[in-house]
Amino acid sequence: MSWLPDDIDDDDDKYADYEARNRPNPKGNRARTKTRPEHLDAVTGRVLTVDRGRYAVLVNAGDPDEHEAIASRASELRKQPVVTGDLVDLVGDTSGDDGTLSRIVRIQERKTLLRRSADDSDEVERIIVANADQMLIVVAAANPEPRPRLVDRYLVAAFDAGITPILCITKTDLVDPAPFLANFAGLDIAVVESAENEWPIERLTALMSGHSTVAVGHSGVGKSTLVNALVPEANRAIGRVNAVTGRGRHTSSSTVSLRIGDGWIIDTPGVRSFGLGHVNPDNILRSFTDLAAIAADCPRGCTHLPDAPDCAIIERVGAGELGEIGRLRLDSLQRLLTALA
To answer: Among 121, 199, 196, 128, which residue's Cα sits nearest to residue 160?
Structure first.
């Protein structure tokens, strides 16, 4: 059946190709292709901070002409988060001059990813920083009160990511930190203590030399104050602890990477919770290399928790084979696994 009007003859040459006409592209655009340009002229940059879809990127890091450029994210990366610490490839105007905007077209392979979830039941991960190899966990000895279980969660996230933790205790002039530090006696991690306005700058700078260190901590513990002491030009916002609730205020609202000597410190906003829904428990045990070797003799599916039957680690620690340090390390392992569970 023809759809032509009744007064038009199907055999009329005038309308012979009417039904087979080619409609032009109304937008005049070329057909889409999945082939993307290789961007062989791209330059490498380090993402310093992220602000509402714009990225401050350090170009030519370490060279005399290093400078910051502002970039947006290419459309092909819209489903891939670009975070502070990322090494990226840039195209476009990378001069950094006022009013210029370059474009991030690739994210280079990441060495580490520090992640957290909204809560322990949420397996959707939020990437905090990329390529950090150290975590500076900042805790106040008092005001606000230290939270060992929150520190446990930071440690879990660090071990899961393959990041070396460092513990920094502030406000030691108010309270002796020894009872709190006893919670972590079984862990082989560096501990730095500081009184108010007496920051151990030289030691911290030495620990961070040649490393990319992400600073984390509960709101109000003095993390941003510490960052300002280490990098005076940082001018990170600081706040005070609420005298009624004992809670710190959220002051730093963004994650920013700052140079310290030949290393980097990445300041993050203070948090009151740290979800671990994305963490694989096996990564925690692997961080305890001595206990992981013994775990090879455990039954399949062993949890290594106090009620685990025939756990080789528990049996050897109970027999005194690993001494007091073994007992402390097992206690730390079980506490971290419990925090994850």
So the answer is: 128
